Write a sequence for this structure.
């Protein structure tokens, strides 16, 4: 991964703690550089419905074996590729997420809320995060 592009992405979201949306600044030059290097994408936030999100998670889960995920995690320990460390916990959390439709409980999905996940009917995604 390009170090400069990685630093641009990092600085966009973090400065002595996670930056609020209104605090995030980036120059056009830095943004274009990071996009060219593949570390950043559109700054627009995408909205996806709860049910579409659950469906996509299940499709993604089926594309990977647990062993391949464990192998990626273990290799990150020796290569120090810390960005590969979250894959195992993400996989385990996705694995525990049973396919379900939005189960309303005061505008939130009770099933997702019980799992500690975003439980709104519409979920906003920032592809850069």
């Amino acid at each position: 991964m390009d170090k400069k592009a990685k630093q641009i992405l990092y600085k966009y979201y973090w400065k002595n703690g996670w930056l609020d949306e209104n605090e995030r600044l980036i120059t056009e030059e830095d943004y274009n550089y990071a996009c060219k290097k593949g570390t950043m994408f559109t700054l627009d936030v995408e909205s996806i419905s709860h049910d579409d999100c659950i469906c996509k998670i299940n499709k993604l889960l089926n594309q990977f074996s647990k062993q391949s995920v464990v192998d990626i995690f273990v290799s990150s320990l020796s290569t120090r590729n810390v960005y590969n460390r979250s894959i195992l916990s993400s996989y385990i959390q996705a694995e525990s997420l049973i396919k379900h439709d939005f189960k309303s409980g005061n505008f939130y999905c009770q099933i997702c809320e019980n799992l500690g996940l975003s439980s709104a009917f519409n979920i906003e995604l920032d592809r850069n995060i």
